[in-house]
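Sequence only, no structure available. Ideas?
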Amino acid sequence: MWNNLTPRNRHFWHSAEFSRLATKADFKVKLGAYEKYQVPAHPNASDKSFTYWPAQLVTDHTKGAHGKFDIFLFPAGNERFTQDVLPKGPWDGFLILIIKIRFDFDTALDYKDLLPQMRAAVLEHNGKYYATGALPKAAGVNWNFNKCYVRFSPRALVKNKLRRPGGGRRHEG
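Reply:
I predicted one. Tokens follow.
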């Protein structure tokens, strides 16, 4: 098999959620040295779990006149990845910011070498920041974040300005 993964507590959380729904008892997933993996129950637990579904989601949010971004906030339980693999842990959540950037380039510019540099400039901020706070009551879940990992993930849309025969310009993507 390709890309074999070491099992993590979160991979078994769906079983704990199913058992909680059937028995009305709360469960934790114990795997190896990590015996306290637990995330809050999703309000739509028969269909969703906070292991793979965000507790808070905002799409196409804008800040001022420029740019859009999406926000995904996930609770995270006690497991090897959140405690030992990610640097500066332990972490109890993930705040993912997908930054949407549109570029208008003239076709004379070779932007293919420029985009990886711009992406790298955003990615270098990963692991430098963390967030704290609680989920809003609208999320329907009681969860406090003591140390939530902030991850930036840029997305680029490139629009080229093509030249018309005769010297005029038109804008196409």
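The radius of gyration is 21 Å.
Hope that gets you unstuck.
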